[in-house]
Amino acid sequence: MQTAETLATAPALHDHSTGTGVEMFPGLCLGGFTMRFERDEEIFGEQEEADFAYKIVSGAARTFRVLSDGRRQVVGFHLPGDVFGLERGETHRFSAEAVSGCVVALVRRTAIERAARADGEAARWLWGLAAGELERLQDHAMLLGRKTATERVASFLLDMAERSPFAGGVQLLMSRADIADYLGLTVETVSRTLTQLERDHMIAIPSSRRIVLSRPEALAGCDA
User: Fold this and answer.
1) CB of 172 closer than 8 Å to CB of 210
2) Which structural domain, as residue segments, surrounds residue 182?
3) Any idea where the Cyclic nucleotide-binding domain is (predicted)?
4) Which uninterrupted H or E stretch holds 28?
């Protein structure tokens, strides 16, 4: 468990409290530090104090909640450049863990709030971040509530491809279990759907961690 006290005193990979700082968006650098988290290591827990905002430097993280019956609902995957963990209230609504070994930059929430009050560009960035998060959660609610298994998997692959630095393909740092818990499906259904999409020549799966979108327009048709 990471608390404000342990994070404040933790040995950072790079101490940004002096120097250029952490660039939250182009032109806004704030004092902070970076930490490395190993695969499945907790970054922050649900109901812990939300004293920091987090930005993925490398690797990936997931945010999730464990339901009362023990099931896990993954609500988001965060890739390099993504900012997450910035809350309206005083505590985190979800937990966050490293999907793979990842490096995360941490900036105090109070520093971001001060910047937003003093700088119009920072305020617009913060507004855009909040609006983007709301849009993403609305899309995810629609995915869980109205889409078939094929539509859910197609939507996920298209989203990952849009956010991926690899043209025409997706590098999946997350496991099939992670994907299943994000899409509200079983691992078997995710695997079966991927196999069917490959048989239909919409995707190619050269390895368990890499998927090539052979016919992205056809895949988009599945998500229509």
Assistant:
1) yes
2) 147-222
3) 37-85
4) strand 28-30
